[in-house]
Amino acid sequence: MANSHTENIDIELFKDDLEYIDQDFLQSIIQIFSFTYEDEKQFLLMTEKATYAYGEVICSWLSLKNKLTKPQRISLLNDIKIVQVDSGCDFVAILTDDGRVYLSSNDSHWKTNKKLRSINTGNDFFKMIACGKNHLLMLRQDDHVFAMGDNCCDKITGNETSSCESMINTGIENVKLIACGQFHSIVVTNSSEIYSWGDNFFGQLGLGDQNDRNTPCLVTFPNDDSVDTRIKDIVAGSKHSLFLLENGQLWGCGSNYDGELGLGYDIGPTKLTKLPFEKNLQQIACSKDHNLSLAHDGLIYYYAWGKIMNDTWTSPRKLYDQHSSFASASALLLESQTTFGLTSVTNLCESNYTSAIQSIRRLFDNPNNYDVEFIIKKRRIKVSKCYLKSVSKFYDDKFLGDWNEKKEVTISDYSYDAYYEYLHMLHMGQIRINHQNITEFISLAYSHGDEKFIKQSELLAIFSAAEWVVSQRHSATIASDSQSAIKAIECRDSSNALAIKIRKILQSSKQHMEGRMLQGTNIPHYDTYYAYLRMLHDGTIRINPQNIAELIDLANCYRDQ
């Protein structure tokens, strides 16, 4: 990336990766950078006073002992503020606020010797860095650009094979922005002139051809006086380049095989081409590891296009679920979220969680945001494929297989109400109890292999049994529903302990209730019986002064030691 985005991410995004770290330490993190090396996530974590390495790979590069529960402090960076971090295939570059650049790598060509190497010489101080797959650009504080690394495809300029020990002056001056793709380099001057060089097999240099360049070449916009070519930001993906103008327009060139330019077709232009956005944009992002591009309008919405998990978006799509960062958006679209450079951290777990829930709710049965409809007896439920694939293996398999190209899917095995409630649960996280469709709920849970839903459906059977037990009317409907729910469970697994447990509860409860009625004693409150049955199901019990007497009575009655 060319530079760090001024956005905040919630540390909760990485809770699975950092779950073994002490919570007090996590709360002290103010910046985070992540990268992936051979499918393993690695982290640099910054607090007010120090920088820490977390992950077996990054620790080995620094001769630190990796500990699952404790990030390792990088002593050379004590009390030093980090302003930018970027990474290549097998190295990480760090820029500090005093203009120093440090490298860490396991590649002997970088001469790091498993330590943090400072590459500054003399009075060289820098204000921006950018990493390609195995090369590095540095923008010096006097606006000159220098390069280091492997020179395959001429990406560091000149005819040398490589220069991993010393910096090469590219000869470009008055520069304000730099960016690296895997094998190409781009810079923008203070007068908004674009220069590019390196690999050009896909036209990613924007020069109108596919010939590599070993020296910086001027990139021009189409001859159109109406184009305001003042450039705000640049980013480079693996094989494509994006240019954000001050007026909010987005231009690009290079590979479009996976839709990474969002042009609606797979042919990539070799000249700068305006991308199809109706609204003005304020931020852009992409990475060298994914053929995915992202943009933000600066207000509410994020946009995405390119390769997402097992799908391809050939045109930009608005992400209707709200996000606070590109990292948050990547968590929805990629198999593993990424930070897109050094990113500030906030601990807004509760507010972000609430925002996320509200965003997900807007994906359910929304006529303005759907790409597939479920049809049940002529009634329709509108949903987002991408979201369903992200929360359910059943839907992920279906949309990759039988339903791959379908925009309408007919459901014949379940009623509209039951299927609607199931999809509602996937989006809202809760089930609305309905005695009429409890049997279908359980059947849906098993057929979709949804462990969470199976648990919730089984709980519904217990709740139904509880209502039957405490109902002074002994409603035949509730009793029938309870029996139907048990049969649905037994139908899926004849040895299911839950079904046996509920049957015993019903039989014992019936005898207990009949005895209490004959004696003229009170029937247990619903809340008490609910708590007792919940304890039988999940092993926890909630006791309070109001229900303790009844709970003891129930335990004695059922001989529950």
Summarize this, please?
The chain is of the alpha+beta class.
Question: What key attributes describe this structure?
Answer:
single chain, 561 residues, alpha+beta, 6-stranded mixed beta sheet, 4-stranded antiparallel beta sheet, 13 helices, disordered N terminus
Topology summary:
Layout: E1 8-10, H1 23-28, E2 31-37, E3 40-46, E4 51-54, H2 56-61, E5 72-73, E6 82-87, E7 91-96, E8 101-105, E9 117-118, E10 126-131, E11 135-140, E12 145-150, E13 162-169, E14 175-180, E15 184-189, E16 194-198, E17 213-219, E18 231-236, E19 240-245, E20 250-254, E21 273-274, E22 283-286, E23 292-296, E24 302-308, E25 311-319, H3 326-333, E26 343-346, H4 349-361, E27 372-376, E28 379-383, H5 385-391, H6 393-400, E29 408-410, H7 416-428, H8 438-447, H9 451-470, H10 476-492, H11 497-519, H12 526-538, H13 548-557
What does it look like?
The chain has 561 residues and is α+β, with helices and mostly antiparallel strands. It is built from 13 helices and 29 strands. It has a 6-stranded mixed β-sheet with strand order 1-26-2-3-4-5. The chain is globular. The chain starts with 7 loop residues before the first strand and ends with a helix.
